[in-house]
Amino acid sequence: MASNKTGQKKKEKSKRRGASQWAVAWRRFKRNKAGIFGLIIVMAVFFVGIFGSFFAPYPARPDPHAYDPFYDIDPITGIGDVRKPPSWMDPEEPNSWKYLFGTTPIGTDVFSDIIHGTKYTVYVGVLVTVITMALSIAVGAIAGFYGRWVDNILMRISEVFLVFPSLLLILVFVRIFTVSVGEPFLNIPIINIQIPTGLTIVIVILGLFNWASNARMIRGEFLRVRELEFIEAERALGAGNIRIIFRHILPNLMSSIIVVSSLTIAYAILLEAAVSFLGFGDANTITWGQILQENFSEMRIVWWAEVFPGIAILLTVFGFNLLGDGLSDAMNPRLRD
Amino acid sequence: MAKYHVEGGKKPLTSNNLIEVKNLVKYFPVYSRGVLLKKQVGIVHAVDNVSFNIKRKETFGLVGESGCGKTTVARLILNLIKPTSGEVFFEGENVFDKFQSASKKEKLKLRRKMQLIFQNPYGSLDPRMTVFDIISEPFIIHKHVPKSQWKEKVYGLLELVGLEEYHAERYPHEFSGGQRQRICMARALAVEPEFLIADEPVSSLDVSIRAQILNLLGELQERIGLAYLYISHDLSSVRQISHRVAVMYLGEIVELADTDKLFKSPLHPYTDALIQAVPIPDPKARAMKIVLPGEVPSPINPPSGCRFHPRCPRAQKICGKKEPVFKELKSDHFAACFFPHLD
Amino acid sequence: MAETLLNIEGLKTHFFTEAGIVKAVDGISFNLKKGESLGLVGESGSGKTVTALSVLRIVPKPGKITDGKIEFNDENLLKKTEKEMQKIRGSKIAIIFQDPSSSLNPVYTVGTQLRDVIMAHQTVSKTEARKKTIEILEVVGLPDAETRMREYPHQFSGGMKQRVAIARALACEPTLLFADEPTTNLDVTIQAQVLNLLNDLKKKLGMSLVMITHDMGIIAEMTTRIVVLYAGRVCEIAETHDLFERPRHPYTEALLAAVPRLDMRKTLRVIPGNIPNLIEPPSGCRFHPRCNYAKQTCKEDIPVLEEIESGHFVACHEWQNITLKGERSH
């Protein structure tokens, strides 16, 4: 047979298992310093979000100890200044780590607030993205696969979502749905986890308002992959629609979906911070945006209570963006070979 | 009398018809994009009244320039798109009826008999799957091979198309164009088809690789008795592997004959021009030739009468007015022309 | 004997990619005489296009000319500054590509683009340039040139676009034209038109043509001398008749035997294996893993290009020991 000669040569050279596109992408990603930096930030955020409560210096609110960790207030008169600048620049506490980022006007430790807030950040980022992506994939896939009038209607709807000033609408909906919240925390029975009711409502609303642009992107990718010849080959083999969508088209969209998800997380975190900062958030959950909102009025004096949460938001958003860009470069077929 | 000196073509076959294509028509509407509703602004006459048949174990070549509708014919036969009108029979059974009304089982049975391979070996393999998964995919769909035999069967197919067992664990991006085309063939052969459509299978491959694939097609025909519909714009390769050839122009078949007859003494002026246009890899064969003027007109509003008449060196008044009938002008040699090269 | 117009010696153009150094052109030498039609034949990865880009000094990043000499009219182009090269490009050396749309700017009309080229290289007024534009468009056979020059590239068919690209390349009457697979994307009947046009123009303008292609038919029709490239190196250089009649390099012979012909059906001979990877090219003679005549020396030593007959150069260790059949004797 024709290829025997070189076939055997190849065999000697490399009898390895083939590298999947994931493996190839990871190899390429590893070389991308910015991407790795983003990945480190993202991993740190997730770590603090999950395990932060165990190593935060002071307890989370509403524990009374959180409000006056240093016992500055005279228990009898109730008088005393709880505002402290970051301990490393406080002349009273030289070289101390006691209150690294200072304390807020209500007496809480900014560093602890940020650490306790991380779990909400993760919660917001992940849940909003899950809702957004589920919607976008469903809409994008249906529009992309069925085309014609289905596509037309779905795309017109998405345009409506894109042209409305969504932040305003989000604020309106958040206000409407959060005024009547009863219990601040809901207990999920079997796994026994408490979820913040108000914040979850905010998350659902954010998720419902963000799908449009992602859905259009996924539809476009869907159309691109749908036209590839291997899809036609599958049809000729007798594969049905379900099989083609789930086994062939969606797996080929995975890289785009992952990239967009990473960027969506960043956007969701930013959006929730904005909602909270504007005072529409859930006061029972001290998210980073909530910290900004609480201390805004005294920002001139207690600047540290604004700057450090701000940096936390900035760094996290930056990290997810770097990760997204890095993943995009690594999985982008244009750069292949 | 032969017009061109041509030697050693494939001998015509006498076996039964496997595929019969009868008066196949496909029009595509052209839309202008509106806000909500689209407006139809024209019709592409992609395939217009095309009839031919393919015998068992035969290679039937379909030649034409881009946009002549040859690929649309292939997709219609495989029922990947629905025809505007016309019929295709496979072993005497009406393919379109079957795909419309038969049970899922019957449809799958028909799918198994006809397969295709494409021009672009890069787009025709799912990049996320290993070669093993790609080739065993048909087993999942048709369930005609028990899982315990998958491995044996996949290795057998790889060997059949000239690849090695260890290739099964690799991904498509690790292969060259020629090797990918082999993988495509293995996938198509996995359902044990009787008929394979090869749509420009070698035109995106390097010259030294083309011969490998063309020879492989020939070998497979001998070993498993496949019939081919070989679609190409490259006359030389069509001539190399076809028993009979049909020439398409703007959605219509203008000439059909045994390979040798067609290339030796073409009846239709378009076929003649095509043959003259192909550069011969021999400096001694360099000759003055008639170069066809103009370009292929748009299939949206094809010329009246004979569609070739605006470019035809032999055109007379009647050619623009009446459509020539596609008929047998010499024994087993069909053409649609008022003024064929008959002498 | 005609003077030498272009002389390339030991040209090396490498691409420094993430995966490694791609030795796309690795020591290519040949020359071109005035008024000659030279064919550069090779498959993908043979270095034929990169050679042309190197002569024009427009090798895309991460490619770099690392060694060699390119003499054009006895001046080394590799010593020229970028500014001097800009003057040479278009006015003395021009190139047309496989995909004509890539060389035409979609936002300007065809006429404007041509006029700009003319005005960049010649001191003419706008009206003169416009007149010249119409002239040149008529020369390349664009019907109704005066109206069509006001149209944009997307309004042209593939064949017409290639005519416009040719017009643009020839606007300043270069002495050397590289045609890089100019008809690969075109239909056969249109290909015949474009090839005819190139032949006519070459005669009319007396320029030299380097025809880059993988199509042995086009090479046979268009050229008088051929350089066969494989994996970045020259295998064989000979007059066209000589090369088709008596190829002396196993690769050339195999390539000729692998191409189907319209005028005869033959058993296609297969060249086994695949195009080599240019990051780790085969040692010694790069064709040895696919060669039927390869010996131990072929694996170890790089063959040098030697003149075995007047005007016939071959880079093969075994040329004396093997007898190759020409295309005709099948």
How many runs of DSSP E, i.e. beta strands of chain C?
12
Low-confidence stretches of chain A: 1-15
What is the CATH class of chain A? Mainly Alpha
Main sheet: strand order of chain C: 6-7-8-3-9-10-12-11
Provide the spatial order of strands within the biggest beta sheet of chain A: 1-2
Can you write the helix and strand succession of chain C as a string?
EEEHEEHEHHHHHEHEHEEHHHEE
Assembly annotation:
heterotrimer
- SS-based class of chain A: mainly alpha
- What's the helical proportion of residues of chain C? 25-40%
Chains forming the largest contact: B-C, 48 and 48 residues
By CATH, the superfamily of chain A comes out as: MetI-like
| Whole-number count of domains of chain A | 1
CATH topology of chain C: Rossmann fold
**Strand fraction of chain C:** 15-25%
Tell me the domain tally of chain C.
1
Give the fraction of residues assigned to helices of chain A. Answer: 55-70%
How can the largest sheet of chain C be summarized? 8 strands, mixed
Q: Tell me the span between the first and last alpha carbons of chain A.
A: 30 Å
CATH top level assignment of chain C: Alpha Beta
- Round the Cα radius of gyration of chain C to an integer and report it: 21 Å
Give a short overview.
By secondary structure, chain B is α/β, with parallel strands linked by helices. Helix content of chain B is 31%, strand content 24%. Chain B is built from eleven helices and twelve strands.
Plain-language structure description:
The complex is a heterotrimer of chains A (337), B (343) and C (330). Chain A is an all-alpha fold. Chain A is 65% helix and 2% strand. Chain A has helices at residues 4-13, 21-30, 33-55, 110-146, 148-163, 166-178, 197-209, 211-226, 229-237, 241-277, 288-295, 304-331, and strands at residues 185-188, 193-196. In chain A, strands 1-2 form a two-stranded antiparallel ribbon. The longest helix of chain A has 37 residues, at 110-146. The two termini of chain A are 30 Å apart. The relative contact order of chain A is 0.15. In chain B, 31% of the residues lie in helices and 24% in strands. Chain B has one domain: Rossmann fold. Chain B is an alpha/beta fold. The mean pLDDT of chain B is 86. Chain B has eleven helices and twelve strands. An eight-stranded mixed beta sheet of chain B has the order 6-7-8-3-9-10-12-11, sandwiched between helices. Chain B has a four-stranded antiparallel beta sheet with strand order 2-1-4-5. With 330 residues, chain C is of the alpha/beta class. Chain C has one domain (4-329): Rossmann fold (3-Layer(aba) Sandwich). Chain C is 33% helix and 24% strand. Chain C is built from twelve helices and twelve strands. In chain C, the strands form two sheets. Chain C has an eight-stranded mixed beta sheet, with helices on both faces. In chain C, 51% of the residues are buried. The mean pLDDT of chain C is 87.
